[in-house]
Amino acid sequence: MTAHRTDRDDPVDLTGAPALTSRNPADPADVLLRIPMPGAFAVADAVERARAVHTGWLRGGAAARSAALGAVAAAVEAAAPELAALAVREVGKPLTEARAEVARTVAIWRYYAQAPFEPAGAVHEPAAGAGLLLTRRRPHGVAGLITPWNFPLAIPSWKAAPALAVGNAVVLKPAPEATACALRLAEIVQKELPEGVFTVLPGGATEGNALVSAADAVSFTGSTAVGRAVAAYAMARGVPVQAEMGGLNAAIVLPDADIGQAAAHITAAIAGYAGQKCTATSRVVAVGDALDPLREALTEALRTVPAGDPADPATVCGPLIDERARDRLAAAWEGLPTLAGGTLPAAGPGWYAAPTLVEKVAPEHPLLHEEVFGPIAALLPADDLAHAVRITNSVPYGLVTSVHTADLNTALHGLDALDTGMVRINAPSSGVDFHLPFGGSKESSLGPREQGRAALDFYATSRTYTLSPAETT
Ligand code: UN1
To answer: For this structure, is 195 an active site residue?
Structure first.
């Protein structure tokens, strides 16, 4: 994610104190909340309170943790329509996608509710003599989570649920733009957990820094610049850290692909939620004869993709998060040959822009090197698969690649040289399976993977026990 995904602090409130404002991107006059920034001391306090209760949460046992996480899943499910509507209003996520995010959030809590009963280590024979060797997963203490606005319920949940499952307490600092969603999620979660085990502390850079300087483990999703600074700071303190950052993902289309299906998947990955996902597609690489039919199908699909009011269940592409994001998008298409989009609505509130496809983009153009975080992609020709892989790898990011082909050999054996952490065959680049590891290479990710069992390992350390038999007489 680019620098715009960093914290956005409104300078001051009416009393002159630092303030945080969250607005509806479809109607910026609609203010969801305006609250004072809590400040660094409030974060330090929350971490101290969390540290004080974490041992009780751990000693409460596996069944209690499992039941609590399961109860959160049920409570999120019961609040699903309200949570989806809140995500639509606060971060402009189209309703159908917001509903899917809530469903994913329920599944995440349900999945991690099983984790407390999973084996927490292994038994080994000693190398010599009698006795027993054991490994056992132990929580770090307080997990500090810093989350972005674009998945305001799912990302906080996929970080918090595994952290809690293995016995940590959690302090979460959400992006300012998603504060209302995070506070509502906190109300729901807190009802099912012992007091102090899960705290949401709104804020900006000051609060984020304070959390990184106090937590026992840090998980971050946001811009590459901030993620690297967070990782360096956490490393300097000697606490475990993971950072999920940007993407500049390619879709590779082979001539044997079902071009209509490929165009539909790629359109979803370019225009879905106005491209505001680190997994969105921003480069479409057409191999050989795929170029002409794909250009036609993709142009048509992007011109007709349902765009507009995020509250309409048919909408795929809603507004950009704020004015800066929309301006950045408009600057990105400036001067490029446009096949679809490249326009802003003439009037009306909301940070809307048309889903855009451009071509004939020079290799050194910023669009091919920097993440825009908007509904725009470049169509690029490639001579063959090897060339397409070289183009795919030619960016500073390495998150996900989608590959569209009917050939199993290409899918299984032709993609070894790809340097992205995830490869999705005949599927959009966006969308993840919450029970598998998520992450990439280069500037996309730092540290251990998120999600699935990988997350359980990240939120714990491993203790090795050596049990020797007592001397008997
Ligand atoms: C998805 O593609 O459904 O912040 C999830 C992001 C990613 C999550 C993408 N970490 O956009």
So the answer is: no
